[in-house]
Amino acid sequence: MPFNKNVFINCPFDDDYYPLLKPLLFTVIFCDLKPRLSETKDGDDIRVRQIQDLILDSKYSIHDLSRILPKDEQDLPRFNMPFELGLDLGCKHFLKGVKKCLILEEERYRYKEVISDISGQDISAHDNDPVVLVKMVRDWLYKVKRGNKPVAYTIIWDLYNEFVFDFDKDMRAEKMDPDKMWEIPFSELIALMTSWIKSKI
Amino acid sequence: MTVSTRKVNQRLKISAKTDSKRVHITRRLNGWAVRKEGNLQASKVASTQKEALVYAKKLVKSGRATTIIVHNKDGKFRTAK
């Protein structure tokens, strides 16, 4: 897979984040790029090495730090996302700016209290709103990618919703439960989204 | 892909090309959009979901649409009557 087309996605893979992850993947695919997630990588290689390979193979990366804080008092903070962001920023430095990365947060300036070293990077707050997320990712990709005629974020968001409807309908037609779509491997979900988008536009 | 996912994939390719007379109501940063399947642009952006629904019902009544799908923020949807 060509380096210029790959987008490394560093985010949580849980039910709570799913309403944001699905439109995020759809937007990246719609912008003619290929999402790369650690879950899409095969083999028994050491996880950190897999992540390093994904980072090295991806010109673009999107890091969502909105879920790094503990969910409740008994929970622990989640360090994987900031750790992977650090790896990517290191790689970006040694590749002398070839790589582009977007950092997403829930609130605009919260990162300054927990990880202020990332100041100066492209940081945007989505407020847990998928419409805002689609707009941010679309705006950033067109800014760093250049060349392509921009499509309004509203068109991407509307087509994403239409995909969700078709996906639900077609899953049910095959006697599958669309509410359990997270049980499909991400590589397959990405393939389904890609097929639908290619047939649509 | 598993066999069942492959079948869903085949169906999705057909669904994507089939523009039925469905009308979708989706959220916007500034309101609610009403868009007919097959169109890229919304026919109307209303300030409330209720207002969008009234407009969509008019499309159904005039025969320009048959089904109204209302999408919420989290990717869930319902069929409106």
Helix and strand arrangement:
The complex is a heterodimer of chains A (201) and B (81).
Chain A lengths: L5 E5 L7 H13 L3 E3 L10 H11 L2 E5 L15 H15 L5 E6 L5 H4 L7 E4 L4 H16 L7 H21 L12 H15 L1
Chain B lengths: L2 H15 L4 E7 L2 E6 L7 E3 L2 H13 L5 E5 L5 E4 L1
Parallel strand pairs in B: 1-4
Antiparallel strand pairs in B: 1-2, 2-3, 4-5
Keyword list:
heterodimer; A: 201 residues; alpha/beta; Rossmann fold; five-stranded parallel β-sheet; 7 helices; 5 strands; 11% strand; B: 81 residues; alpha+beta; five-stranded mixed β-sheet; 31% strand
Short summary:
With 201 residues, chain A is α/β, with parallel strands linked by helices.
Describe the protein in words.
The complex is a heterodimer of chains A (201) and B (81). With 201 residues, chain A is of the alpha/beta class. Chain A has a single domain (3-200), classed as Response regulator (Rossmann fold, 3-Layer(aba) Sandwich). Chain A has seven helices and five strands; from the N terminus they run βαβαβαβαβααα. Chain A has helices spanning 18-30, 47-57, 80-94, 111-114, 130-145, 153-173, 186-200, and strands spanning 6-10, 34-36, 60-64, 100-105, 122-125. A five-stranded parallel beta sheet of chain A has the order 2-1-3-4-5, with helices on both faces. In chain A, helix 1 packs across helix 7 (186-200) and helix 2 crosses helix 3. The two termini of chain A are 22 Å apart. The mean pLDDT of chain A is 88. Chain B is α+β, with helices and mostly antiparallel strands and 81 residues long. Chain B has one domain (19-80). In chain B, strands 3-2-1-4-5 form a five-stranded mixed beta sheet, covered by helices on one side. Chain A binds chain B through residues 19, 22-23, 129-132, 135, 154-155, 157-158, 161-171, 173-174, 176, 184, 188, 191-192, 195-197, 199-200, and chain B through 1-2, 4-5, 7-9, 11-17, 22, 24, 26-29, 33, 35, 37, 40-42, 69, 71, 73-75, 77.
